[in-house]
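Input record (one chain):
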Amino acid sequence: MTRIASRLAVVALAGAGALALSACGHSIEQKAATGAIAGAVVAGPVGAAVGGAAGAAVGHAQKPH
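The corresponding structure, as predicted from the sequence alone:
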């Protein structure tokens, strides 16, 4: 049980770090690229897709109207 809990903690921290990095950059493209790189480091190709989507979403949310 200890092994599962520690692995879950590492995955949660890595995910939080990837989400935080997805907000880096000035343009939507930069935010998506940063999120994709962070996601790839954490979880491989699937993480890259999720990180890129998160970065693009953050970029659109922060875009002035």
